[in-house]
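Sanity check. The docking grid for pyridoxal-5'-phosphate depends on where the pocket ends up, so I'm generating a full predicted complex first rather than guessing from homology. Inputs follow.
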Amino acid sequence: MMDYSKIMCRRVQDIQPSGIRKYFDLLQGMEGGISLGIGEPDFQTPWHIRDAGIFSLEKGFTKYTPNAGLSDLRSAISRYLKRRFQLEYAPVGQILVTVGGSEGLDLTFRALLEPGDEVIIPTPSFVCYGPLVSMMHGTPVLVETRAENDFRLTPHELKAAITPRTKAVVLPFPNNPTGGVMGRGDLEALASVLRGTDIMVVSDEIYAELTYGGRHASMASIPDMYERTVVVNGFSKAYSMTGWRLGYVCGPRPIIAAMTKLHQYAIMSAPTTSQYAAIEALEHGDGDIEAMRDEYDGRRRFLVDGFRKLGLDCFEPLGAFYTFPCIKSTGLTSEQFCDRFLAEERVAVIPGSAFGPGGEGYVRANYAASMRDLAEVLVRLERFLGTL
Ligand SMILES: Cc1ncc(COP(=O)(O)O)c(C=O)c1O
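Predicted complex below; grid placement will be based on this.
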């Protein structure tokens, strides 16, 4: 008998599976179940974008693209970033098209980290940062953000976490799972801590188009921060294109060159059909973004209001498509709450604790679901709370 635990990479074995998965597995096959668990838009990819993908297949565009992505796509990304976020990135040398923002994050850590380097990660946040840093023999330094600070990273918290080993800080805003955002003033305050250092910012801006209290500001647009920021973005959330697996990273030339080398060996090029669809998205998709964002905004208000009326404190999320109600008043832990709500009312929400320190006492409920389902969730929640 082979003992694979002796053969396989120790580091991989030590990584814990994501705490999110369990709830989807449980919900499978549950009749009448409603999931507010998944981090995915409920809209179809707009038809004209799908059509562009299909048309590229009809034209026979089924080969590899250049490693860094189609030249037309990189030019479209460059124009888009300037138009929407006042960011200047050259199509050649500063933009790499990746397999989702996910690959972009992985490559960023691979390109930056030496063993023992520390990466500051505000939590609660998306589940991938810590494991990706660990795989590079780096050390995740988790910094809890707090509801009383609107789940922002404060300059004081950032400063306190910095050591001589700090290589980078992840800026996961707009945030999954809290819905917290950081405005230009907040970013300026962090910049005043980072200016003059060699610390890089890994700015995960995948939800940049989904903000409800004003336009998203990118860290790379703050004075002196352009040279110390890698921007990760993609098509999954803004255009409802999760399954197309397409994203991109932008940053200083030497870093993008290193990432392109790794991407070339591990991936070759991102999916060709998706790249053609993405050009259409960037060039003719502003209206779709607007329409989806308006729809999310209505649902967001409805759900936050609903939680508050049922007596749950709920921070007002100003980005992404998640609410993060506080369930401490129920006396249950986040996991107990989610397990029982699923078992008793067939609704999947995710324990805040799955997103790192600071998440305990909260649950993540997305509003990428129909108004009808959201209304039904509130009915079931009222019944559930009544039994506690
Ligand atoms: C904060 C955040 N970053 C990155 C991603 C990765 O998205 P993708 O790889 O689909 O671009 C997600 C997906 O849920 C996310 O929530």
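Relevant for the grid: Residues 4-45+287-387 form a domain with the Aspartate Aminotransferase, domain 1 fold (CATH 3.90.1150.10).
Also worth noting: The chain has a mean pLDDT of 96.
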